[in-house]
């Protein structure tokens, strides 16, 4: 991977002529995303993200931390002990420049040695699962990192609304063999194109079933204004 997302964040943090990130998915046209959005303060965050940060307690792991905005809020506003991980080296450099005390380049599947009271995965936290078939692998790993009374706070969206309805109100889904929330994602930045990657949007019922299959309790904490939701998983 060229780490274009990380480069964009690093450019913004270091005032190196940042540009918008161009995103495109298998079911949507090219769209521009301002890098500044990744640097938002708590007050600028959607209510679902604010709720997740309010519910976080104790030793916390922020998975896929990006530019570190959620971690910074927990570290600075709530005084929590936060570990922030991301596969992007430039993202982690950005986090350190912003003042995060414990930011590490790491894939969650390789992370070991510590247990947490709270694990957060926000901004479509299920995205990193990539495909539906990977849910068990990721949920099992996340569960292994929880303290006995710990919690996983994760958000996603049911993107069924993006598919066309037929005359009797049914939804036209591209393929019966694939889950409709499995997308391929491509991002471009400053004229460079990233390798295409898988990104998973999970409807709540599917997440709940996967959680139960992995010995996790699943609660719907909050629903957003656009088919999005926050869930809390616990042992």
Automatic annotation (TrEMBL):
<dbReference type="InterPro" id="IPR025714">
    <property type="entry name" value="Methyltranfer_dom"/>
</dbReference>
<dbReference type="GO" id="GO:0008168">
    <property type="term" value="F:methyltransferase activity"/>
</dbReference>
<dbReference type="GO" id="GO:0032259">
    <property type="term" value="P:methylation"/>
</dbReference>
<dbReference type="InterPro" id="IPR029063">
    <property type="entry name" value="SAM-dependent_MTases_sf"/>
</dbReference>
<protein>
    <submittedName>
        <fullName>Class I SAM-dependent methyltransferase</fullName>
        <ecNumber>2.1.-.-</ecNumber>
    </submittedName>
</protein>
<keyword id="KW-0808">Transferase</keyword>
<feature type="domain" description="Methyltransferase">
    <location>
        <begin position="59"/>
        <end position="180"/>
    </location>
</feature>
<keyword id="KW-0489">Methyltransferase</keyword>
<dbReference type="Pfam" id="PF13847">
    <property type="entry name" value="Methyltransf_31"/>
</dbReference>
